[in-house]
Queue: 2 jobs
Job 1
Amino acid sequence: MAVGEFDLIRRHFTRPVRHTALGVGDDAALIDPTPGMQMVVATDMLVAGTHFFAEADPRSVGHKALAVNLSDLAAMGATPRQALLGIALPSADEAWVAAFAEGFAAVAQRFAVDWVGGDTTRGPLNVCVTVIGEVPRGEALLRSGAQVGDAVWVSGVPGLAALALAELQGRCQLPAALRADAHARLHSPEPRVALGLALRGVASACIDVSDGLLSDLGHILDASACGAVLDAARLPWPAPATDGVSDALIRQCLLSGGDDYELLFTAPQSRHADVAALAAATSTPLWCIGEIVAGSGIALLDEGQLSRLEPRGYDHFA
Ligand code: ADP
Ligand code: MG
């Protein structure tokens, strides 16, 4: 039997809410803002064929759709609160929708996000998520706060998702010890929400790495009107070079690979010990990879030599 739009909404997109006055079912949701907090709102679209393969596991598409949005809230230092899902489906494939909704709802549950509404329509497969979070007034982590002398930090292992993608495209063969981690990073990234919250009052600027480390660092530098020097010896190399993976590819994935959803941030040198402590407190590997300098652009310090790096990340229109 064919299922209609309203069946899909009722069976798969309607979930109990925990901290929202009114969720799915009326013309709009109702949210009581917490006094003293600013709302933080972000939206990210995932287009089949561009952001995920149309034949990808629907559960991981649901996971990723919400996770990448929560990553934007994490980069602002915000506590996630609500999410809305706009989805276009080529047909009412209920098994696909059920698995997608499960992946989405599992992430929502884990990060205490209420799924409060959305829109469901027929069209080329496309998923657009809006998230709402909150942050104490004036405490959001912006891209514009980096100061000359600040340290540059990155979380996790940037480049892993790009290595998994390279493997799917037949450009390398990952060592077995790395393959599961890399593919998990690509298909079900873990937004660094706890880290983002812990960085409030410590980081001077923050961004999530969605387009590539250099490209996203470039956004901090542009917004903060400064430059950066990265130290090659301190970059977290995502993989040892092996027969199946070249040094050049690893370096390219580390510096320019997107889709990792790690946090890249700056902090005053005087807060070095605090950053190290919150790495332990949030069980997040953090790497101090360089320093903010006067000027513009990114340079790499490698065996005593400074060379300029071009921020080349993913650009949908370039
Ligand atoms: P309207 O015609 O007023 O836009 P809809 O029929 O589109 O109403 O939606 C009815 C209810 O279902 C609304 O509360 C809407 O937020 C919710 N809804 C629709 N699609 C989704 C979705 N994909 N995820 C969550 N809620 C949805
Ligand atoms: Mg509607």
Note: The chain has a mean pLDDT of 94.
Job 2
Amino acid sequence: MRIDKLLANMGYGSRKDVKILLKQGVVRVDDQPVKDAKRQVDLETERVTVQGEVVEYKPFVYLMMNKPAGVISATEDKVEATVIDLIDPSYAHYDLFPVGRLDKDTTGLLLLTNDGAFNHALMSPRKHVDKVYIAEVDGEMTADDVRQFAEGVVLEDGYTTKPARLELLSKGRRSTIRLTLSEGKYHQVKRMVAAVGKHVERLERVQIGALELDLTLEPGAYRELSEEEVDLFFT
Ligand code: URA
């Protein structure tokens, strides 16, 4: 990749800013100053420094997004805006994809990565990574629903869900629930609530495994996971 593009991607400023750094002679490749913005570099085999600081080769990226409503969990779409459209172009060369899917109208914790092993660690049914949702429901969720969800409910297609933990956060004509699932069937929360005769009006994912949604992220905002957060899924 061209050195000006690489350094811009790695957060050293715009292509223009990077050109200035190059002109200043503070960018070195294998200890030789490089001033040519078009110089091709490969971080796997060459050591690039900026003002003496090594530019780290980072093959994988892990992002936590607070997904807003109205965008789809896909990498591209001819009609709809996707979660990838919300990511800064400086990440484009990483070819990120969403880990699993949230419905267009579902908000909250969505992870994006380019690491297939990470995706597998989260999505494989055999890994049993719990996903936690908060939902606003039209209708009163009851203690009997708690019992039914714990035993498994039969969805409209005949599938019986695995035991799920339902907590009633507020009750009334409308209810707020917290639901912990160990599987991820299509529209699962909405279909489980429908199976007990009620309707999900708003749905947010707040936790995956031990990783909670960072509440400082505004809808549509994202940040990279820390190493500790990534490791939560590799143990
Ligand atoms: N269950 C749903 O119904 N929708 C989602 O987006 C996630 C889980």
Note: The mean pLDDT is 95.
